[in-house]
Amino acid sequence: MLSLKNCGWNTKERSNVLRLDATKALARGQIFGVEWETGNISSSHRAINRLFLGNMKHDLIGGALIVPSRRLYRFLTDRIGNISELEHYFDLWKARTWNNGVLAIIVIEHDREDASVPLIRKGTDGRALI
């Protein structure tokens, strides 16, 4: 988030009209929005819905949801939204109208595994208590 902020993105605690994690003002008043998935699969669906709604109503020209791969998922908190669970809905989202621009799902994964690194205790709180 700090890198995005340093590049001119709005990262202020969902202070934008869409309550997205980060937004970038573009030419002609258009906006590009980003959501980072840190919650469960329902949170992932809400994020996609917010991006679609933003495109319909608020000049959102592009949006991206960033989710972990299935390989990375096993190291994160229980039930975090991930690409394996979302890909079943791709046909539904492709059938919806996106006016100009792009909607993307970006998958991230770790570079490698190191058994000497202590594991983070798993929970169901979305890491809110750590």
Helix-strand blueprint:
Blueprint: H1 2-6, E1 22-25, E2 31-36, H2 41-57, E3 60-68, H3 70-73, H4 83-86, H5 90-95, E4 102-108
Parallel strand pairs: 2-3, 3-4
Antiparallel strand pairs: 1-2
Describe this entry's structure for a reader.
28% of the residues lie in helices and 20% in strands. With 130 residues, it is of the alpha/beta class. The chain has one domain: Restriction Endonuclease (3-Layer(aba) Sandwich), CATH 3.40.91.20. It has a 4-stranded mixed β-sheet.
Summarize the model shown.
This protein has 130 residues and is α/β, with parallel strands linked by helices. Helix content is 28%, strand content 20%.
Radius of gyration of CA atoms, rounded to a whole number = 16 Å
Structurally, the number of domains stands at 1
Main beta-sheet strand count, sense and barrel state: 4 strands, mixed
CATH class assignment: Alpha Beta
- What structural class do you assign from the helix and strand content? alpha/beta
Order of helices and strands: HEEHEHHHE
* Uncertain runs: none
Described by the principal axes of the CA atoms, the overall outline is globular
List keywords for this structure.
globular; 4 strands; 130 residues; Restriction Endonuclease; alpha/beta; four-stranded mixed beta sheet
